């Protein structure tokens, strides 16, 4: 899964997983959980943030990575009927 | 589309897209959405911000780029009857 | 237009434009606008801010530049009956 | 004990110790304590944070370390029925 | 005018001008003005602040400079019956 | 006096002195004092904090140092019936 | 006057001057003054703060210096019946 939008700097676009899905690692995140992190797939990444030295700091996640992110991370966008989240890479907690 | 105003440092000027437009990527952002990002075209860019090391950090967007930006980003200016937004490049979320 | 006051560091002095003026670019900023940026002419500039490395970071604006700045930017001073604003260069949004 | 989730940057995953456990050092943390730190075992670590110079700052804790952490540190995740905490390495106070 | 007190780091001591004085530049600052900057003469300067790189950042003002500063800048001290203000150099807006 | 717990980064573990003790320097800190600093002995130190340049900044205190620290510094831990405080080295005011 | 306590990093210990004292510079600070700076003598200094580059930034004040400091600067300590203040060097405004 990938989309043609290019996030800027250290931003990534994530396709949220359906609530009932189960990952290879067997993570189940009950939707009743308060403040529990969410799961999704990275569908686009930015080129990275520039450091104060002008060096490009490349993102550590890749398109296709299954990731966990905080419940309130990111901004919703909608492309051809599908909902995505655009967030900073630092909003991503872990790769599954 | 371009205008003769020169934004300073890391600022860019964006011409907001009409609400009913549809991009090549097919993004439709319903105007009823709360806090949803907005879409527009970059019409002028600054030379970039100076880092603490004195290096010029050039903007990653270019004049003509179709971009997404946060709903409350930027300051409105009006040139020859047209409305634009002047914002920092970091207010831009993605290039379409 | 220029005045004999020397702003310190990254500060500049701006002579606000009369409300009914019209620039070459044709910008008209109706005075009823809420939070709209203001227009004026730079009449004095500081030598620039020192970076953490001790390097002088020269201002990007010059005396004579027509500029846009935020509605609440700067501090009013009055020289020989004329009102000016002294502000940081970062309060300037764009050069017209 | 280890799990297949990869924390990002300077994050680590900790398996909280059962409340009644006693470490080799003999630490007992009564569960009535207010604001007392908690104890657990590191089960996964990130690759480290990038410094502003672009250098990778490796974590000082290792998988298997018994650690103390603040009572409200981290975000709960649940993997195959087990509860873990994902937190920044800086939330860890000490290695037992 | 100079005094024997040595301000530390990036601090300067200023002798406030009498309210009715008029400078060479002809600045008159009516004392009814709200938040208007004040005028005075620099009577002592510190050696400068050390940057994070350990470089000494020398002050740009000199003893004898007539300066403008914010209305609430600095701390009052009193030497042999005279009132002075001790402030950071960054509180000084301009040299007259 | 020393314990087998390893504080992380710039943290140290301090054994608080009994309220009635008197140091070689003769400091007496009456327990009625409000906001007065506390006294104790360093029993464990971390390896130091990594600077942004990746350099290890070693702690200036050593195990065995008698130190003063702010009244509300640190987090209480309890090891084999003894109470300690784990705090950042910057919470330590002075070595006695 | 000097005491055997070693302040840490960029801290200094100051012996406050008696309220009625008069310095060589003739400063008199009436004790009715609100927010006026205080005067005292430096009796101990730390080795200095480490910069982000790991360089030791030595204090600019010396033991024996008569200094001005803000009214609410520092923390009170009491050594052999005498009261002192332990503060950061940046709390010191000037050397008399």
Automatic annotation (TrEMBL), chains A, B, C, D, E, F, G:
A Pfam entry, by short name: Cpn10
Q: State the Gene Ontology terms under molecular function.
A: ATP binding; metal ion binding; protein folding chaperone; protein-folding chaperone binding; unfolded protein binding
Which SMART domains does its entry note? Cpn10
Q: Does the keyword Transmembrane apply?
A: no
Query: What UniProt keywords apply to this chain's record, in alphabetical order?
Result: Chaperone, Cytoplasm
InterPro entries with a match to the protein in the record: Chaperonin_GroES, Chaperonin_GroES_sf, GroES-like_sf
Cell location: Cytoplasm
Enumerate the transmembrane spans: none
Would you tell me the Gene Ontology cellular component terms?
cytoplasm
Describe the protein's quaternary organization and the partners it interacts with: Heptamer of 7 subunits arranged in a ring. Interacts with the chaperonin GroEL.
What this chain does, per the entry, is described as: Together with the chaperonin GroEL, plays an essential role in assisting protein folding. The GroEL-GroES system forms a nano-cage that allows encapsulation of the non-native substrate proteins and provides a physical environment optimized to promote and accelerate protein folding. GroES binds to the apical surface of the GroEL ring, thereby capping the opening of the GroEL channel.
Family per record: Belongs to the GroES chaperonin family.
* Annotated protein name in UniProt: Co-chaperonin GroES
Specify the species: Pontibacter ummariensis
């Amino acid at each position: 899964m990938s989309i043609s939008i290019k996030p800027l700097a250290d931003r990534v676009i994530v396709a949220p997983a359906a609530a009932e899905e189960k990952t290879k690692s067997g993570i189940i995140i009950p939707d009743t959980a308060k403040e529990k992190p969410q799961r999704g797939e990275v569908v686009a990444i930015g080129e990275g943030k520039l450091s104060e030295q002008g060096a490009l700091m490349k993102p550590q996640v890749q398109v296709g990575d299954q990731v966990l992110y905080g419940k309130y991370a990111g901004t919703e966008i909608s492309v051809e009927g599908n909902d995505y989240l655009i967030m900073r890479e630092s909003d991503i907690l872990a790769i599954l």
